[in-house]
Specification:
2 domains, about 15% strand, Aspartate Aminotransferase, domain 1, 14 helices, alpha/beta, 7-stranded mixed sheet, Aspartate Aminotransferase, domain 2, 4-stranded antiparallel sheet
């Protein structure tokens, strides 16, 4: 059968089902808030409403209970959560924070916001998270923290990272936007460092459209992040903190979540376990068949870790086929349809993930802030800085989202058949 990329018939025309976990429960919760007339009760000064309304506070209480953590602080996005976390640990101009280059841009721009300098460590070749060995080599007297990202739904190597942090007196911020309810041992991701940040963006495991949650067991860090979330500079004098010098740099923002978003997120949180189990089951079904295709390798799971599969990663075995990964994946994509509610996007299958951050114009030009520590720093970002990351991105890593809840076994079978069809007709690609 001729490949669709060469003019043959597509394996499937009908779109894949949408990933939509919103139902009447969320509708009921939203209507309750609308009818109350209180869409937000935040006040940006010291007042009982400084901490937000009833839905916001209920969400924070329920999130803290679910993740077995002392403090949960809602924000309007995980990006805002990362900004608040960097501010709370006291990053100042010229301080260095070691971060993964293979992540969403906000993991690094949060560092820039406070005048810090992102230092990019390489990633693990099988787990794709920041590599502790690379981290340790990059530590200098200016290093103040590590930003570890639980990429694709699997925890970073926190056993090794925490040893490094303790040895060098560093804070760890955990970007767990893609890994809610993933685990290392019996502890949830997000709770493995000093501060963890989750996302409630519309394409995450659970969502409220936009939104994020910060977690910590540290009372001081929690209060600082609450200040940063809600115009904290107006609170200090009103609450009698004029003499607390460590709080004087708490420039506040408006990172507040609305009552409607919080009401939706509360319902979504109640669905999280079930939705994750569906992802895990779908990935197991796919991997059982895809492992029989010689050019694909199934990445291992980290010991004692639970993977929650925001994205399902695969590895391309270059030596098993005489064509490049990109050409192979383009052929698979040509066999498959878009996904409903994402039908303005291409097939949710890709080679690589994001371009390594340090190769993007922001880091190549270093002019975004003018005369600023980042622009004036001697650090140069160049190709070859993180060779494992670059090799994964350019040649080896495959990522897809075709294992989300809502995908039936028949849908998954079509994904498998598309890979099998291209492998069987690989001569057409040579």
């Amino acid at each position: 059968m001729k490949l669709a990329i060469n003019g043959g018939e597509k394996l499937r025309e009908n779109p894949f089902p949408a990933y939509n976990t919103i139902d009447k429960q969320e509708e009921k919760a939203v209507l309750k808030v609308l009818r109350s007339g209180k869409l937000s009760t935040y006040l940006g000064t010291w007042h009982e409403d400084f901490y937000g309304g009833s839905e916001v506070q209920a969400l924070e209480y329920e999130w803290a209970n679910f993740f077995n953590v002392k403090h949960a602080i809602s924000v309007n996005s995980a990006t805002s959560g990362l900004y608040a976390a960097i501010g709370a640990i006291g990053i100042k101009a010229g301080d260095e924070v070691i971060v993964s280059p293979y992540t969403m841009s906000a993991s690094a721009t949060a560092i820039l916001l406070y005048g810090g300098i992102p230092v990019f460590a390489d990633v693990e070749d099988k787990y794709f998270c920041i590599d502790p060995q690379s981290v340790e080599k990059l530590i200098t007297p200016k290093t103040k923290a590590i930003m570890a990202v639980d990429i694709f739904g699997q925890t970073a190597d926190f056993k090794a990272l925490k040893k490094i942090a303790q040895k060098h007196n560093l804070k760890i911020i955990e970007d767990s936007a893609q890994a809610p309810a993933a685990k290392l041992g019996d502890k949830f991701t997000g709770t493995l460092g000093d501060i963890g940040v989750f996302s409630l963006n519309y394409h995450k495991h659970i969502h409220s459209g936009e939104g994020g949650i910060i977690v910590t067991n540290d009372d001081d860090l929690a209060f600082k992040m609450q200040l940063i979330r809600n115009h904290g500079e107006t609170v200090l004098a009103a609450k009698g903190y004029e003499d607390k010098k460590e709080l004087h740099n708490m420039l506040g923002f408006n990172f507040r979540m609305t009552e409607i978003e919080a009401a939706i997120a509360r319902v979504q949180l109640s669905k999280l376990d079930e939705l994750i189990e569906q992802r895990i089951d779908n990935v197991k079904y796919l991997e059982e068949k895809l492992q029989n295709i010689p050019c694909l390798e199934i990445p291992p799971l980290r010991d004692e870790a639970k993977h929650v599969y925001y994205i399902h990663p695969l590895l391309f075995k270059e030596k098993s086929i005489a064509c490049h990964r990109n050409k192979f994946i383009d052929a698979v994509k040509a066999e498959l349809p878009p996904t409903l509610m994402r039908d303005d996007s291409p097939v949710l299958l890709s080679y690589g993930y994001v371009k390594p951050l340090y190769l993007q114009p922001l880091y190549q030009e270093k002019i975004c802030f003018g005369e600023y520590p980042f622009s004036l720093s001697e650090r140069v970002y160049k190709e070859g800085d993180c060779p494992v990351c670059e090799k994964l991105h350019n040649d080896i890593l495959i990522t897809h989202e075709l294992m989300r809840p809502g995908m039936s076994k028949e849908d998954l079978d079509d994904v498998i058949k598309a890979f099998e069809k291209v492998w069987k007709n690989k001569e057409e690609l040579l």
